[in-house]
Amino acid sequence: MALIALLCLPVASHGAVLYDSWTSNSSPTGSYVVTVQHNEDTSTWDFVFTVDPWDAEGLGLFIDLGDFDLTDTPVLSGVSWEPYVTAGRVNIQKTDSSSNACGSGCNINGLNPPLADPDDEWEFVFRLGRRKYDGIQSFNFSVNDSALAGISDSDWGLIAVRGRHVCPSGSTHPDDEDDCDFNGDKAYATGAVVPDFDEVPVPATSFLLGLGLVLLARARRVR
After folding, report:
1. pLDDT tens digits, residue range 55-85?
2. Would the N or C end of the chain have less CB density within 10 A of its end CB?
3. For this UniProt entry, which residues form the secretion signal (predicted)?
4. Would you put residue 218 in left (φ > 0), alpha (ψ -120 to 50) or beta?
């Protein structure tokens, strides 16, 4: 009974901003999926950039937060990528910048995304991976929330992606790598707030389950 009662307790859910519907300057465009989520435990904003299905690779990510200037020095943390390759990387290329460049051979020139007035700036420009094919489908990284003081889920607006190695329709990396060309892709999207992105976080579930089992064992000893 104790276990059942504990598992029925409400678990706090965490909202996220989801980007998965794109306007592109090419056809086909990559199946990019980007999520941004605030992590109160680590005081960070957590980013996940993936391509699902894996029909392109990411090279640059541009973030627009409207008329906002960063409030502290941005610090990257929790950087990882899948599949893991030694050549992978994530860098903060620019902040509070009106430039369309995301490093060597990386830009969104000609895309003309509708940047928010009045500052017409990208608050973050991230560089992902390399110009050559490096076999990375997903990037994970975080930025300290002190650099984004006052920002909430609803403030995440426009983002843009510079992709490359876009596959023809029906082909994917890495199985159909030979069928995928080296054309680049430029696309932008606006986010949708998903209030219950994590319905039942795994750590909380494990805690409740463990606590319930402890209480059950104690009840049996008492009997």
Report:
1. 999 999 999 999 999 999 999 999 999 999 9
2. C
3. 1-15
4. alpha
Task: Report pLDDT for 198.
Answer: 67
Residue 7, in any domain of the structure: no
The answer to whether the beta carbons of residues 81 and 134 sit under 8 Å apart is no
Q: Which residues are CB-neighbours of 145 under 8 A, at least 6 positions away?
A: 38, 43, 44, 45, 151
Residue written as token pair 């696309």: 187
Q: Supply the pTM of this predicted model.
A: 0.82
Q: For residue 115, give its domain range.
A: 15-214
Q: Which of 90, 80, 86 is nearest to 58 (CA)?
A: 90
Q: Flag whether 8 is in a domain.
A: no
In-domain check, residue 210:
yes
> What CA–CA distance (Å, rounded) separates 206 from 35?
24
Give the Cα separation of 113 and 100 in Å (integer).
10
Q: Does residue 146 sit within a domain?
A: yes
196's tokens = 């219950």
Structural domain tally of the chain? Answer: 1
